[in-house]
Amino acid sequence: MSQKDIVACNVMISVLGKNGFVEDARGLFDSMVEKDSYSWNSMVSCYFKMGDVESARFLFDRNPVKNEVSWNVLIDGYSKLGYLSNADNFRDFVSLYNEMRWSGVCPSESVLSLIVQCCAGFCATGLGKALHCEIFKWNFGYDVVLQTGLLDFYAKVGDLSSAKRVYDEMPCKDVVANNAMISALSKNGLIKEAQSLFESMTEKNSATWNSMITCYSKMGDIHTARFIFDSSPSKDVVSWNAMIDGYCKAGQLYYAEELFNNIGYMRNSVTWNTMITGFVQCKEFQRALHLFDNMQAERVKPTEVTMVSLLSACAHLGALDMGEWIHSYIKKNKLKIDVILGNALIDMYCKCGKISSALDVFHKLQVKNIYCWNSIIMGLAMHGYGNEAINYFHNMIKEGVHPDGVNFVGLLCACSHSGLISEGKMYFSQMQSVYGVEPGIEHYGCMVDLLGRSGQLLEALELINSMPFKANAVVWGSLLRSCHIHKDTKLGEQVTQRLLELDQHDGGNYVFLSNLYASLGRWKDVDKCRKLLIESGVRKEPGLSSVEVDNVVHEFVAGDSSHPQFSQINAFLVDIGKKLKDAGYEADTGSVLHDIDDEDKEGSVSYHSERIAVAFGLMSIPLGKEIRVVKNLRTCDDCHTVMKLISRIYNREIIMRDRNRFHHFKDGICSCKDYW
DNA sequence: CACTCAGACT
């Protein structure tokens, strides 16, 4: 084969590949007696164009005459297929890069830019810095793209001073470099500097304007953000998305929706994600799920980000069926379960009461971060599996993950829920000395809860007085609840006094004190509390319970007759009442009569919301399937007793999540062993 | 240049 023949074949391979005839190209390639690096590279390039990563890599590995271009084609091919946005692939890719350096090939600027971009994406601080040193050593003549990549890398890993240094050393700064700098400044809250850079720029593109929109909305200045949006001469879809996100973050859903509805043909999947996420952030979980229906109706392809937001909505709602549907959707559509999506799944399963599935996802995740560990430990804690939570904590330490503050909240919470008093005390004392985590007020809060609930009220009070923080309403509230459980009115009154000094507008405090008096039959004091509550004009958060039936979440508030099956539910509640009576149950009428809880204000047939939800569940959910109820407040003693009885009388498993933890009612007993 | 995950008490 002459050199001329080889060149002709190479060109032919390239042409065939470009037109999609990859088989023919391969045939020609295989038939060549002699091949040069050009032949190999063209063939690899063909496979990448067809999206066939495996074949491309297979050929690359067997290429005996690798040159600089070979590496370029490989790396470029990977990146164009979005292959490098996956952390596992990135690790593989880094070892590939090292191999290339070992074989003495000098990377090109474009390859280096790609790697630096990846380092920014994965916050691979060490590698990024090492690359910067090498680039400096080789003296790459200040390629503007590469330098901007470095600037972006430092901005993303939070090293603003290095970002600034890179920027200042750039001999010529194009609009992209300036944009990166604006973004870096705004991420660090240096809005003034970003603003003056913006004003000094002679050339601006849409990205420049968009950066400023994000900059102002991140600072909470939504009006200026809107002003920039309106002033921008080149609005693209990113401008609209950034503005919608700004309104969502500011809690102004009305304006966000207005833009969302008016964006027109430009609307893309990110627009949908932004709006769905916005609903979730504003706690409009049902609307988030509903918007997803519209997204599907318009045949917009959901992404991993969509799934994360939807799962978060399911977690809050306790919508297990919907959550499981999303999980199977993810599998069916081969979406990538990375740490973020994986953690969203774990969190959803934990909060929907299916800890076994949460553990399943957890163990299948190859890469786990501190979020995943925190979710699973907190999940175990909420279900009362204190010892398992402690085991997972130790496994985490063994795997070399450093604990953080959130981690200890979960751990101490686990001890508290399971009554593991000495363990809780031990971990609390080890936080600083063994694990180097400074205890915050939230950890003291956990300890006050742990001590108080176990009846060590004075120790709890001592801890409050000795802690290096000013006690907040949460800490006092926790102690007050313990006073209620252990019927210590004297301390309860003192604590309430402190609470009212701190926050006169929290109606919950009056309710608590009132319940404390009611449990002791001090009705005069109960009346006094009620007057105080009315005079102060505050309202307590209304109790709200939900139950999921056929992928639809039904919400119930006491006394709300808006549900279409209201009368049937009411009749069923009366029937439940009769059956309970037959079983020997007697309502705690004293406390019910005098309770000033909002939920009890209605007439003859009034029940706490969780009872209505369970009644509806009993009516609508087929036998054999458990009833899952979510309540926004803590359940009361009376309802807890009723749930236990219902589980026995109707032979049903009831899984209820309240504000604090899970209760699994089965055969007349609860998983919390009445310690909650 | 835009969109994603966790926590004490009520």
UniProtKB/TrEMBL annotation:
InterPro entries: DYW_dom, E2_motif, E_motif, PPR_At4g14850-like_plant, PPR_rpt, TPR-like_helical_dom_sf. One of its GO terms (molecular function) is zinc ion binding. The keyword NAD does not apply. Belongs to the PPR family. PCMP-H subfamily. Keywords: Repeat. It holds the Pfam family DYW_deaminase. Residues 584-676 form the DYW domain. The keyword Transmembrane does not apply. This is Tetratricopeptide-like helical domain, DYW domain protein. One of its GO terms (biological process) is RNA modification. PPR repeats lie at residues 5-39, 174-208, 236-266, 268-302, 338-368, 369-403.
